[in-house]
Amino acid sequence: MADSRSGKPGMTRDDLFNINAGIVRDLITGVAATCSKAFILVISNPVNSTVPIAAEVMKKAGVFDPKRLFGVTTLDVVRAETFVQEITGEKDPSKTVIPVIGGHSGETIVPLFSQAKPAVNIPADKLGPLVKQSVIKAAKGEKGIVEPSYVYLPGVGGGDAIAKDTGVEYFSVPVELGPSGVEKAQNVLSSVSSEEKQLLEACKTGLKGSISKGVEFIAKSPETK
Length: 225
Prior knowledge:
By secondary structure, this protein is an alpha+beta fold.
């Protein structure tokens, strides 16, 4: 879902929210009414709030399937990998992968440099098509597909444990994809470093506010009551 306004110089996340919240609400209202089984990939910022908005609209319509709702956060992974490669001088993108968890803005983005391992790095302009292709491949039955995504934890496999650890219902982690969408959220929290634990505390505080903002927006929207 990219039918929204991108940030302009000087714009804050609140500015983006005020513009995009209504757009996402109205688009998802249409999805709920006409194609409720669609896979929904949200890239409209602020993703930390717009994904909860999408979920709340689908809940009110009685058609919410957490396995089919994704907040796209792959760009954060590419940024982290690029940052590390600039330091190490590594030229082969397959030699660097950095898990990035949490959310998709500011202090909620937590790169786990302690868990770096070989993987394929994807150019930023290929991210949208990549995630779309991954979802399509999984829907056709292909196994072993893992993508970072901001998901509703209580509704996906492995999500309850992550929700318990973080205290939030929405969180970005690597997720295993299958024909029905998210099959399992991978819990990478057990092996974070002490420095990363400190970053996670700030992340959780930021996420709670963003999530509540999205949920409250729909609660106060007469169009979805």
